[in-house]
Amino acid sequence: MKQIVDPPEAVDAQMVARYTNLGAFPLFHRFPLTEQTKRIVLAEMMSCSVAQASTFVDYLSTEARASVALLLEEAGVVELLSLLPFKNGTRVLTVGDSITADRLGWAELMSLASDEMTRSAFTVVNMGVGGQTSADVISQIDLYADLEPDWVVLMVGTNDFRFHTDATRATMLSRSETERNLLLIRQLIDDELGARLVVVTPPPIARPGVTVGAGARSVGWSEGYDASLAEFIRSEFADHIDVHSVLGEAVADDLYEEDGVHPSAQGQRLILRTMLQRLPLIDS
Fold first, then answer.
1. CATH class, 77-282 region
2. 161, exposed or middle or buried, with CB in 10 Å at 0-12, 13-18, 19+?
3. Dihedral angle sign, alpha carbons of residues 283, 196, 277, 228
């Protein structure tokens, strides 16, 4: 008998653990799971035991703390932290896709850096979810409102110009849809949340036009869309942080993982440093 469906490719357990933030999933946020159930679900997603999944998560937590330590050793970073506009007790909501959900990512590093501060500590609530588009962010505005943030730091758009299959390279959203969504997000956050919004340009795609997989499993990103999105954010949002230009002009090696989409730990540190340099200026 002809096999209709090919068997799934082997699960990369470490990648699942790194980019999966179950607590931010809209379904699980509306219908919360116990911590034990989250561990079970994550283990199932990773195709491993709960103990093995916990080992992966613990390893990533250790790596994140080491990454923050490296960042704090860089010249001027501790001073930049002291200049942040987040007052003591401020709740900062970080919203985005897997680049934000990343356990080694800028949002996690920002949270850990806050823990190192002796004064003006702030709280980071990471609502990054892998694969999110700007349309998904709009659909979750009620969840963000429940969290009562003082600031919202938004990095979204990379998955808006993601396409699937070799045959049809239509992106998830058109450029005009993405632009409309970002403007609507600003209005909703202003009207419904009363929070200060900072929009971060997504990092450039290191290998634009290159697809992963083949046929119906092909996934790729349209060349030039990321630069167009960054230009729109720069022109329309006074409160923005341009990491697209910083990573695009960086000469350091190993700023991205092999897929050319996700920043490496080094790339994520560069993103956060860029944010730390810009945020005090936004509040002035």
1. alpha beta
2. buried
3. negative
